[in-house]
Amino acid sequence: MTILHSPIRILGFGSPIMGNDGVGLKVIEILKKEEFKELEGLDIEDAGVCGLDLLNLLDGARKVIIVDAILAGSPAGSVHRIEGRDLLKNAEFLPLISVHDLTITDVLMIGEQVQTLPEIVVIGIEIGSRATEITREISPDVFKGVDKAIRLIRKEVSSSL
């Protein structure tokens, strides 16, 4: 995993071989091809399914935008913007379930105890159901959320640079 130095970081999470779970990585792939690749002060990184390694990727940042597949009970392709502080404050009540074994909320709760956390925004794309088959394909319904997620990320970045 790359060491990141920029104050603003966009991190995509997911598994590229678990279908819809890879939607966060698809967003990162598109962002790396677009105008963001030239911006100074911004890192765009495929974080895979890094778990506790996320804490290293937060270190030294001012703002981190996390893009991931979520299960929140909304229609597939829906996009949710969630403040990291809201995840920590409402960890028991927020209807957000990561599709990974260790949720982003779990990692942030640990991170809060061991380091100073930057501003964190999660852009979650609803996948509708847990990925169970090995495939690189993202369903059309879930893929519809990619453009909206990118628009939200552009807004976050423009307000932070």
UniProtKB/TrEMBL annotation:
Keywords, comma-separated and alphabetical: Hydrolase, Protease
GO BP term, example: protein processing
Gene3D superfamilies linked to this entry: HybD-like
Keyword Hydrolase (UniProt): yes
Entry GO MF terms: endopeptidase activity; enzyme activator activity
UniProt xrefs under NCBIfam families: hydrog_prot
Descriptive protein name: Methanophenazine hydrogenase maturation protease
Gene source species: Methanosarcina mazei WWM610
